[in-house]
Structure formats: C-alpha cells, structure tokens
Amino acid sequence: MSSITVTGVPRVKAPRGAIWAARGAVAVWAALSRWLADKPLQIRSAAVEAAVEAARVRALARRHANTDPGFAADLMAAADRHEAQHADR
What we know:
- The protein contains three helices and no strands.
- It has helices at residues 18-38, 46-64, 69-85.
- By secondary structure, the protein is an all-alpha fold.
C-alpha cells in the first residue's frame, strides 16, 4: 500500500509597502511615457542616415584592414557607393 502526503502552502501577505511601491512605479512610468510622447521625433535625412551607415562600414573595414586587405577594400568601396547613392540631390 502507498501513501501520499499533501501539504498546503499558506497564503503570504504582500510585503509592507509593496503595493504602494508598485503604484508609484506605475505612476512614474506613465508620466515618463506621456512626457516622451510629447517630444517630437528628430528625423534625419536619407543622406545623413547613409553617411552614418557608411561610417560604420568604414570602421569595420579599418578593423579588417590588417588581416584581410581585399575584404577591407571591398567594404570601403561599398560604403562609398552607398553614400553616393543616397546623397541629397
């Protein structure tokens, strides 16, 4: 014959101040989201975005220049083409 022991877990009250802290956190989060929603987004032009992307690719090319100069040259050329393609006309 087998027996099973079942234990009940007593309910625990929330720690002192937990509800107050949660409500405060929600209020701060809501205030920040309202404040940030009122800020206008800074939209960059396509040329600026292309320049930033090209700069990142050039940085990658400089990292690979010593180990794989051909790959670095290809990356530099691709960055130049990308920047020229998206330049303001």
